[in-house]
TrEMBL record:
It comes from the Bacteria. InterPro entries: EamA_dom, EmrE-like. Keywords: Membrane, Transmembrane, Transmembrane helix. Residues 79-214, 226-367 form the EamA domain. It holds the Pfam family EamA. It comes from Parenemella sanctibonifatiensis. The lineage of its organism: Bacteria, Bacillati, Actinomycetota, Actinomycetes, Propionibacteriales. This is EamA family transporter.
């Protein structure tokens, strides 16, 4: 009987050493990962014979196809991590910039409008360029655009602003950032994707780290209305990661962001029109890092960094890492928010918050390791249990 399938990383390494370059008839490879090495023709022929017995006459081609795909997946995951870090860093200063605007006389809804409205204007030209010849996709994906603009962009932030009227802002933020945990539970209950043990440990570590980072133990006012609003924000956050990782039907990410921002802008203005939110603004100036800054500069920064850049990076990360892993990388936003608040508003983080940031990072790494699954193509290889082959691979 065949032994357990090897880990993908071990599989890649072993086959890479056997075939560092595509085999050519009559030529024996002489290098392995840049290290000089030679193999006898007899040994090479024996290995080829074993390979053909195990995988069939086209086994060598299939192994090479698998190896190339695994290498492409590794590059894709690496770029996904970079996009996730960019997204977390870009989302981080949103709170500090909003506080600066509020201190300059802007209402929370006006700060939100500056973010989504500014981002939609910034992305207008790139969106028009990327949509050339694809405008029919817009009509096909209008439900996705509507959901993205109303739920992850507008509703999540509106729910958070409502929650902090009733409960401690730290408590509201903690509940909201349980969104990735809700996503894991939803995938488990609805689709049967049971989280691995590492993912479970990472989830617990992320929640505990979050509690330390926002110093939730400093004071909690439990109000059912506030908890309900922050819970709605958590659901919206889970929807954001799920939509970012889903199939957009050929709709470019920049277009999804732009049209979603437009929908959110209309929603905020409509909310102000019916009296749900208040839109007020002041002439400024705003104060950042102890310096007076023109309020319009802060508005522009709000639209560019936590608006356009952050959401685009979040979608790119979700498409490369999947919604679960990208969601837990998003927890690093809280750590970045503390740093941004320290630099821009002069509020120093406490040592316990630094410890919490380290715990969040550890939890994020555990989740990424726990969600790494063997390549599907590897599990589907039709290995034939030939006795001599089994003795070699067991």
């Amino acid at each position: 009987m065949l032994g357990p399938l090897p880990d993908p990383a071990d599989f890649t390494e072993s086959w890479g050493r056997a075939y560092p370059t595509p085999p050519v008839a009559g030529v024996v490879p002489t290098t392995v990962d840049g290290v000089a090495a030679r193999r006898s023709r007899q040994g090479q022929d024996s290995f080829d014979s074993l390979l053909i017995q195990g995988l069939g006459s086209n086994g060598r081609t299939r192994v090479w196809s698998l190896r190339n795909r695994m290498q492409e997946d590794a590059v894709k995951r690496g770029s996904g991590v970079l996009w996730a870090l960019v997204a977390a860093a870009s989302f981080s200063p949103a709170g500090a910039l909003a506080v600066a605007l509020q201190q300059a006389g802007w209402s929370p809804a006006a700060a939100l409008l500056a973010r989504v409205g500014g981002a939609s204007l910034i992305l207008a030209i790139p969106t028009v360029l990327t949509m050339r010849g694809r405008w029919h996709v817009l009509a096909q994906q209008w439900r996705l655009i509507l959901a993205y603009g109303l739920i992850p962009v507008a509703a999540a932030q509106f729910a958070y602003f409502q929650a902090v009227q009733y409960i401690n802002p730290g408590t509201a933020l903690l509940v909201e950032y349980l969104g990735p945990v809700l996503l894991v539970l939803w995938l488990w209950v609805r689709h049967g994707q049971r989280p691995s043990r590492r993912t479970g440990v990472g989830m617990v570590a992320a929640v505990l780290g979050m509690m330390l980072v926002i110093d939730v133990f400093a004071g909690i006012t439990v109000n059912p209305v506030g908890l309900t609003w922050s819970g709605l924000a958590a659901v919206c956050l889970a929807v954001y990661y799920a939509l970012s990782a889903g199939d957009h039907g050929g709709l470019p990410p920049v277009a999804l962001i732009c049209f979603g921002m437009v929908i959110a802008t209309v929603a905020v203005v409509a909310g102000a029109g019916v009296g749900v939110v208040e839109l007020t603004s002041g002439p400024g100036p705003a104060v950042l890092a102890g310096m007076e800054v023109p309020v319009l500069a802060v508005v522009a920064l709000m639209g560019v960094v936590p608006g356009a850049v952050a959401f685009i990076a979040g979608i790119m990360a979700g498409q490369r890492l999947g919604s679960t892993v990208a969601g837990f990388f998003g927890l690093l936003e809280v750590v970045g928010a503390i740093v941004a608040t320290w630099l821009l508003l002069g509020e120093l983080p406490q040592p316990i918050q630094l410890v919490g940031g380290a715990v969040i990072l550890a939890g994020t790494v555990l989740v990424k390791l726990g969600e790494s699954r063997p390549t599907e193509e590897l599990s589907e290889l039709p290995l034939t249990p030939v006795p001599e082959v089994a003795s070699k691979l067991a």
